[in-house]
Amino acid sequence: MLVQNQIVLAADRLSKRFGGNIVVDQVSIAFAKGRLHSILGPNGAGKTTLFNLLTRDLTPDSGAIRLGATDITDLTPDRVARMGVARSYQISSVYLDMSARENVWVAAYRARGGNSFVFWRQVTRFAETREWAFSCLERLGLVEIADVPVRELSYGDQRLLELAVTLACEPRIILLDEPTAGLSSKEAERVKRVIMALKGEFSIIMIEHNVGIVMDLSDEITVMNRGAVIAHGSPFEIRENRDVQEAYFGG
Ligand SMILES: Nc1ncnc2c1ncn2[C@@H]1O[C@H](COP(=O)(O)OP(=O)(O)OP(=O)(O)O)[C@@H](O)[C@H]1O
Ligand SMILES: [Mg+2]
Questions:
Q1: In the Cβ-directed half-sphere of 245, how many Cα atoms lie within 13 Å?
Q2: Which of the residue ranges 142-146, 148-152, 197-201 would you say has the lowest mean pLDDT?
Q3: Which atom of ligand 1 is nearest to the CA of 58?
Q4: pLDDT of residue 105
Q5: Domains in the chain and their CATH numbers?
Q6: 23 C-alpha to center of ligand 1: Å?
Q7: For atom 4 of ligand 1, which residue has the closest CA?
Q8: Which residues of 177-203 are buried (b: 16+ CB within 10 A; e: fewer)?
Q9: Which is the closest atom of ligand 1 to the Cα of 50?
Q10: What's the CA-to-centroid distance between 47 and ligand 2, angstroms?
C-alpha cells in the first residue's frame, strides 16, 4: 500500500457526463511518484476525457482532484499546468519557426520564472537554465537536429521535441496521450526507448493503444471500459485478468 506522500496526483470519484452519456463514471485513481502508470481501454472508454479532467481542461460534474496535498478541483487549466501537471503532445507547445534548441530554452526559461527582473540579474541561473534545456534535447536524442527549424523536422522528431519541451518545464507529472499514434513502427520504437529512459526519474501517465508497448513500459496499469475503471494492477496481473480479456481483448 502506498503512503500518502508518494502520491503525486489523485482523482476521487471523478465523473463527467456529456448530454445523457456518462463518459467518466466515479473514477478513483492515484498516480505514484516516479512510476509509469498506463491507462488502457477500448475506443470511447473515457481515457482522454479523464486526462482532460485531470488537467482541468474539462470541469468534472462531481469528484475531486488532488495534486500532492493540494485540492486542484476548482483551479483553472493554466494554474494546474503551472503547478506542474504537464500534458505532452499538444502541437501548440512548440514554435514551428524556431529551432529545437530555442524551443526548449524558451520553455525552461518560462518555467523557471524568467520574466522576473531578478532572473536576469542572476547570470549563473541564466547559464544553468540554458544547460538544463539543452540536456533535455540530449535526453531525447535530438542534439543533431538542435538548430533545425521545427517545421523542417520529421513528424517523429517533432513529437520527441514536444516531449523535450515538456521535460524542460520540470513537471511534477507528465501525461502522454497516445505517444506513438501516427508513427511508423521504427519511430514508435524510438519513442518507446525514450520513455523507457525517462522512467523512474519522472512520474508518467500514459494512454496508449499499443498493448506491447504498455506491457513493456508500465509499472502499473489501469483499465477503463465505458467510463469506469474495471481493473488495476501490474502488467502481469492485467494480462491475466478475465474482465480485461473480455472487455479489451475480446474474450
Ligand atoms: N466534448 C465532448 N462532447 C460530447 N461527447 C464527447 C466529448 N468528448 C468525448 N465525448 C464522448 O465521450 C466518450 C469518451 O471519449 P474519450 O475521447 O474520452 O475516449 P477515449 O477512451 O480517449 O477513446 P480513444 O481511445 O478513441 O481515444 C466518447 O463516446 C466520445 O464520443
Ligand atoms: Mg483518447
A1: 7
A2: 197-201
A3: 1
A4: 92
A5: 1-84+172-251 (3.40.50.300), 95-171 (no CATH)
A6: 7
A7: 18
A8: bebbeebeeebbebbbebbeebbeebb
A9: 18
A10: 5
**Closest to 134 in 3D by CA, of 171, 107, 98:** 107
Residues with Cβ within 6 A of ligand 1?
18, 23, 41, 43-49
68, amino acid identity = G
Ligand nearest to the CA of 44: 1
Q: What band does 246 get if pLDDT is binned at 50, 70 and 90?
A: confident
Cβ partners under 8 Å of residue 169, min gap 6: 84, 86, 107, 108, 110, 111
pLDDT in tens, 29-65: 999 999 999 999 999 999 999 999 999 999 999 999 9
Looking at the CA of 54, name the nearest ligand: 1
How close is the Cα of 226 to the center of ligand 2, in Å?
13
Q: Where do we find the cell 488537467?
A: 55
Q: How far apart are CA 41 and CA 52, in angstroms?
A: 16
Mutate to test the pocket of ligand 1, among 38, 48, 54, 61 (most ligand atoms within 8 A of CB): 48
DSSP string, 3-70: -GGGEEEEEEEEEEEETTEEEEEEEEEEEETT-EEEEE--TTSSHHHHHHHHTTSS--SEEEEEETTE
Distance 48 CA to ligand 2 centre (A): 4
User: For residue 44, how far is its CA from the centre of ligand 2 (angstroms)?
Assistant: 7
Work out the percent of the chain whose per-residue pLDDT is above 90. 76
